[in-house]
Amino acid sequence: MNVQIQTVHFDADQKLLEHVQKRLDKLKTFHDKITGVEVYLRLENLSQKVRDKVAEIKVSVPKRSLFAKHESKGFEESFDQAYDSLVAQIKKSKEKMFA
Question: In CATH terms, is domain 2-98 a member of 3.30.160.100?
Answer without folding.
Answer: yes
